[in-house]
Design brief:
The protein is of the alpha+beta class. The chain contains two helices and four strands, in the order αβββαβ. Strands 2-3-1-4 form a four-stranded antiparallel β-sheet. A hairpin with a 2-residue loop joins β2 and β3. The longest helix is centred in the last third of the chain and has 13 residues. The radius of gyration is 13 Å and the shape is globular.
């Protein structure tokens, strides 16, 4: 299946791929709090990336970041090609 077909199916379901960046390098213990997102520590930050089903799930991730007292540096909707994944 072509990447453009995968992206069209994702958009039809209402989901999208996102990249969230928080200050601080989170370890794997935080992974379960961001179910389905890949966590990559990079130079004093952590990049959370992956598919987000809908706006409610995105807002849930943002709320969780706030609850943990983390500083959200960036949120970006990205094309599938920009984030490695399934």
């Amino acid at each position: 299946m072509r990447e453009s077909d995968i992206e069209m199916k994702r958009q039809a379901r209402g989901g999208a791929r996102y990249r969230l960046v928080v200050r601080g390098e989170l370890d794997a213990r935080y992974g379960y709090l961001f179910d389905g997102m890949d966590m990559t520590p990079i130079a004093g930050t952590t990049v959370l990336s992956g598919d987000v089903r809908d706006q409610a799930e995105l807002h849930g991730f943002i709320a969780r970041i706030e609850e943990l007292g983390l500083e959200l540096l960036e949120i970006q909707q990205v094309a599938a090609a920009e984030i490695p994944g399934p």
